[in-house]
Design brief:
Largest sheet: none
Number of helices: 12
Helix content: 55-70%
CATH class: Mainly Alpha
Structural class: mainly alpha
Radius of gyration: 20 Å
Strand content: under 5%
Order of helices and strands: HHHHHHHHHHHH
Shape: flat
CATH superfamily: Tetracycline Repressor, domain 2
């Protein structure tokens, strides 16, 4: 993770991993078949750090999923250069399955059947990963300058409504936007297909 945290997935090579571990890079292949296995391990480690919120006898299923995905966001924000990995690798790890099992037990106890919860969990996973990826893109790729240049190019003739919205008080507030979007998805989730 230290390599990924510093340089992203692109900076992680088997050679560099071997050097970091103080072993010949070929030794790494005795334990892991390839870089994909290392990336899968990172996905496992990230999911393993997501905890269910503390249980409450009166909790609603909405509170449970909001707590889980707020914790997932915090985990991803702690490792912004790993967000692309979790967004592009299959999430079929033991840690994810443990989290889902615990989550489903709590959701069912709070009145949301597992068959209804699974599509919601899938949606909220994608929402969380996408929001964090957008929020941390500058950390991972340095896009501030290009965004600023693009905004300067807007004119009242070409984009009057957008400029009015920006002038009317819009500001990028990732935490507030995430919380509002998460709550809207959860409270608006229709249990009838």
């Amino acid at each position: 993770m230290a390599i990924v945290d510093a340089d992203g997935a692109e900076g992680l090579t088997m050679r560099r991993l071997g050097e970091r571990l103080g072993v010949d890079p070929m030794t790494v292949y005795h334990h892991l078949p390839n870089k994909a296995a290392v990336l899968d391990g990172i996905v496992e480690w990230l999911w393993d750090g997501v905890e269910l919120p503390p249980a409450s006898p009166t909790e609603s299923w909405q509170e449970v999923v909001i707590g889980v995905f707020a914790a997932f966001r915090e985990r991803l924000l702690a490792h912004p250069r790993a967000v692309a990995i979790i967004g592009t690798r299959p999430s079929t790890t033991p840690a994810l399955f443990r989290l889902i099992e615990g989550c489903l037990q709590r959701l069912e106890a709070a009145g949301l059947a597992g068959s209804e919860a699974m599509p919601l969990i899938d949606c909220l996973s994608a929402f969380t990963i996408g929001k964090v990826l957008a929020e941390t893109s500058d950390v991972a790729g340095g896009h501030s300058e290009s965004i600023a240049a693009a905004l300067v190019s807007l004119t009242p003739q070409s984009h009057p409504t957008l400029l009015n919205a920006l002038a009317g008080g819009y500001s990028f507030t990732p935490e507030a936007e995430f919380r509002r979007g998460l709550r809207a998805l959860v409270t608006g989730w229709n249990l009838e297909p």
